[in-house]
Predict the structure of N-acetylmuramoyl-L-alanine amidase.
Amino acid sequence: MTTVVITAGHSNTDPGAVNGNITEASIATDMRNMVALYLERKDIEVVTDGNGSDNQTLRNAIKLIKQGKVAIEFHCNAFHKQSAGGVEALAQPKDKVICRALCEAVSDVMGIPTRGNDGGFKSENSGQHSRLGYVRGGGIILELFFISNPIELATYQAKKWLVAREIADVIADHVGVGCKP
């Protein structure tokens, strides 16, 4: 059986970016749970960094990476300008293909752009990012959208189950399981 690692950014004690009463950590945890559900329905073994609303620390998430054929952690971007938007994935070059596919899937469902000139793929040292422990450990950080952008946040809330299903389909294709209707 194929194993995939799916983790939620931030933790029970670190909310990440916040927009009103919505936290990045809660979005990441919900996405982790939804994607895990879709993957399990495809008979893919899923290892996560918590169940339900539990969201373990980055240190614990990094320890899980090697257990899967692929490891993905969910996050949201934020910026002081509400108009900033789009999806991107930070990873090592070995994961460029799946990163592009993940970003394209999120972009298609939400109607948002992929960030950058490489289909949403960015190396860990791009822009404001540097020395990302999850990426150095072999995982992918998927920045789903900008939580600070009210339009993207509303779109995400309306379409999150569709986003999760498409992400699960990309992962299943990547690990060679294929999509089930």
Q: What stands out?
A: The longest strand covers residues 71-77. DSSP finds five helices and eight strands in the chain.
